Amino acid sequence: MTVTEEHPISIRAHAVLFDLDGTLVDSTNAIVAHWTRFGHENGIPPERILATSHGRRLIDTLLEHTPHLASDTIANELESNLPKEFGDRCQSILGAPEIVQRLDKVFPDDRRWGIVTSGTSSLASQWLDMFGMPIPDVFITAEKVGRGKPDPEGYVLGRRLLGADQSLGKKAIVFEDAPAGIRAGKAAGAVVIGIASTHSKAEVLDAGADFVVTDLSQIEVVREPADSDDFVIRILRQA
């Protein structure tokens, strides 16, 4: 069946978790500029760094390519400066501000969404502030996990904090763009909706996404019925 507004795909869930870079904000050009400069300054072909950096913690990328620079202090400094230096190359993903606002309206007294990002708190909070999106109560950044994506630690923690622990039989939906994050979401037992913003539809599906959309304008959030303890995510159009 063709997915249309008359025939959407509907998924009932208790909570939703978003990645940030590539999912709520399109920071690709800013990150490419950052790693390009870093590569030139450290004698590493930028394309070698960019081949594995997306969707991973910056500290993990440093460990792989410049282990002598792999400290929390350096990672935090690099990420804190990134929006200041390259923020003009970043924009929000279409539909992102609207979907988080809608999620807050659906359950105004019981926030059911959070963010699990490989970025540091400084970087992630600057991106959200730049585009007028709130910092959620469940805000899991690079500093809050021992193992970054594709390890599911962040998404498992996010599910638990939102009352959607897999052991409770509560369904969670993860929105992700990067293969590492998609694999993390699936390993955490979530339904993963892939965003084809930084990788092709084929790459997103190959990583394990259950569905693929181009952006978040193709997603609708409703509470159905009105007194339900869950909400419904509707996919109006797939990529």
Number of domains: 2
Whole-angstrom Rg:
17 Å
How large is the share of residues in beta strands?
15-25%
Mean pLDDT: 94
Number of helices: 9
Could you give the count of β-strands? 11
Q: Note the gap between the termini.
A: 14 Å
* CATH level 4 superfamily of the largest domain: HAD superfamily/HAD-like
Structural class by sheet pairing and helices = alpha/beta
Low-confidence spans: none
Q: Which class of the largest domain in CATH terms?
A: Alpha Beta
What overall form do the CA principal axes indicate? globular
What sequence of helices (H) and strands (E) makes up the elements? Answer: EEEHHHHEHEHEHEHEHEEE
| CATH hierarchy: architecture of the largest domain | 3-Layer(aba) Sandwich
How are the strands ordered across the major sheet? Answer: 6-5-2-7-8-9
The CATH topology of the largest domain corresponds to Rossmann fold
Q: Helix amount, in percent? A: 25-40%
Main β sheet profile? 6 strands, parallel
Could you describe the 3D structure shown?
With 239 residues, the protein is an alpha/beta fold. The protein folds into 2 domains: 9-27 and 91-235, HAD superfamily/HAD-like (Rossmann fold); 28-89, Putative phosphatase, domain 2 (DNA polymerase, domain 1), CATH 1.10.150. 38% of the residues lie in helices and 18% in strands. Helix 6 (121-130) links the parallel strand 5 (113-116) and strand 6. Helix 1 packs across helix 2 (46-53), helix 1 (28-41) crosses helix 4 (72-86) and helix 4 packs parallel to helix 6. The protein is globular. The model has no long low-confidence stretch (mean pLDDT 94).
